[in-house]
Amino acid sequence: MDYVIEINGLEKSYTKGSQILKGIDFKIEKGIVAGFIGMNGAGKTTTIKLMLNLIKKDAGEIKLFGKDLNENEKEIKNRIGIVFDQGYLYEDLKLSDMKKIFAGAYSNWDEDNYKKYITLFQLDEKQRIKQLSKGMKMKFSLALALSHHADLLIMDEPTSGLDPKVRNEFIDMIRTFMEEDGKTVFFSTHITTDLDKIADRIIMLNQGEVILNKEKDVLLEEHALVKGEKQMLNSSNRTQFISLSERGFSFEGLTGQKEKLKREMENALFEKPTIEDVMIAYMER
Amino acid sequence: MYLSLIRKDYSIVLRNNIGLLIAQMLFILIIVSTNLGIMGYAIMAVSFGWQILMTVSAKDKMNHSMSLLLSMPFQKKTIVNARYMSVMLGFAFVSLFYIVIVEITKFFHVFLFKPLSIEVFFLTLCAYSLFASVTLPLYLKFEDSVVRGISLFSILGVTILGVLIWDNTNIRFLIDSMTWLKEYYAIICVAVIFLSITISRSVSMYFFESMEF
């Protein structure tokens, strides 16, 4: 299988004694949308910065497109599109000036493609970046990231702070990008409803460790949100819950042993969880 | 690649303020030239170089845009080299601006600004290169307020050093040195420019390689 991202034993600490990443491993196969989730401070942005060589790793190995990042940095970055949470764009520049920086950096910059996105997103190239709303800035970042035929799109919290309409447009753009063969998206977020719509694989990070790495459908199929009366609980079935909350006469919990619990708790209600349900349950564990 | 980075630096510096920038430069030029003659050209050049370094560095830091640049296929050495090119190009622009101003004022029979001689050009370029060589690595590494502090202390330090040297130097030695300098100024200037920029670039690269974004 072709892996676009291969991370092995990645460690990072900013100060002595506080390790942000504790030796994480994961692989992302070509042609999928991978959602990278976790609470604030879990280490998502640190991982992305390490993948872009913006910070130095303490240990571990990063391979992109099967090649070592340090040895093939320029070639690898030429094939990546980046969208950061805050955009990191030069606020005082006009859109056309910002575009010129990107066009000069990427060997396969496609001006026609760029014009297509600018028209689609109804952006005015004469405007200064600081005059754009957050949503428009993110659309512009996406237009820049997609205009050089990137094979891998890396996005760090791109939808945070966007209204639902813009978020949907953003997700639609990613869908369109994925229609082309061999494209891959790596997408960090804590807004998991976006991932419900688009992700193929979910990687969950908690306190610097990967605690889940599964195909989304398998993950949601394996787990169930169980609701019922408190009297159904006993010491044996309680252990089969990843998280359990009891309120008054009822309970609600997430289990990873759906079939076993179904046999034991015939009268309980079993619902398909959302990614958010799974994320919260694992974080609370 | 270099061109897009240099164009970016100048877009940031000029923005919509070309008129204001020219007015500022003219103001410095007129004030200093009235009192110190050709020194106006040198001070205007250094002011413009400082303006480039300060503005570009401030915008890089304010928007975290260096992270974006380094996420692109720009190599670190390309970004550092482009910054030096932008600053040195600034000197060329200022010199051209000065020559144009001299010619315009001469046309109107105003002789406030002295024509630019090759000696003055070389000596100013030398001073400009030294200034850029010291401040550019500092702007890459430190916050702007820290660089401002270091620059002020440096200016003070150089002044004190100058006074100490003056007090402890005999006139004969000074005259001999001046004569020697006058004879070989071009070679000395080229050597100083080359050495200062080379050492400064190495320091900048060292800082840049060790930094996290």
From TrEMBL, chain A:
<keyword id="KW-0547">Nucleotide-binding</keyword>
<dbReference type="InterPro" id="IPR003439">
    <property type="entry name" value="ABC_transporter-like_ATP-bd"/>
</dbReference>
<keyword id="KW-0813">Transport</keyword>
<protein>
    <submittedName>
        <fullName>ABC transporter ATP-binding protein</fullName>
    </submittedName>
</protein>
<dbReference type="InterPro" id="IPR003593">
    <property type="entry name" value="AAA+_ATPase"/>
</dbReference>
<dbReference type="InterPro" id="IPR027417">
    <property type="entry name" value="P-loop_NTPase"/>
</dbReference>
<dbReference type="GO" id="GO:0005524">
    <property type="term" value="F:ATP binding"/>
</dbReference>
<dbReference type="InterPro" id="IPR051782">
    <property type="entry name" value="ABC_Transporter_VariousFunc"/>
</dbReference>
<dbReference type="InterPro" id="IPR017871">
    <property type="entry name" value="ABC_transporter-like_CS"/>
</dbReference>
<dbReference type="GO" id="GO:0016887">
    <property type="term" value="F:ATP hydrolysis activity"/>
</dbReference>
<keyword id="KW-0067">ATP-binding</keyword>
<dbReference type="Pfam" id="PF00005">
    <property type="entry name" value="ABC_tran"/>
</dbReference>
<feature type="domain" description="ABC transporter">
    <location>
        <begin position="5"/>
        <end position="232"/>
    </location>
</feature>
UniProtKB/TrEMBL annotation, chain B:
<feature type="transmembrane region" description="Helical">
    <location>
        <begin position="146"/>
        <end position="165"/>
    </location>
</feature>
<keyword id="KW-0812">Transmembrane</keyword>
<protein>
    <submittedName>
        <fullName>ABC-2 transporter permease</fullName>
    </submittedName>
</protein>
<feature type="transmembrane region" description="Helical">
    <location>
        <begin position="79"/>
        <end position="100"/>
    </location>
</feature>
<dbReference type="InterPro" id="IPR025699">
    <property type="entry name" value="ABC2_memb-like"/>
</dbReference>
<feature type="transmembrane region" description="Helical">
    <location>
        <begin position="38"/>
        <end position="58"/>
    </location>
</feature>
<dbReference type="Pfam" id="PF13346">
    <property type="entry name" value="ABC2_membrane_5"/>
</dbReference>
<feature type="transmembrane region" description="Helical">
    <location>
        <begin position="12"/>
        <end position="32"/>
    </location>
</feature>
<feature type="transmembrane region" description="Helical">
    <location>
        <begin position="120"/>
        <end position="139"/>
    </location>
</feature>
<keyword id="KW-1133">Transmembrane helix</keyword>
<keyword id="KW-0472">Membrane</keyword>
<feature type="transmembrane region" description="Helical">
    <location>
        <begin position="185"/>
        <end position="208"/>
    </location>
</feature>
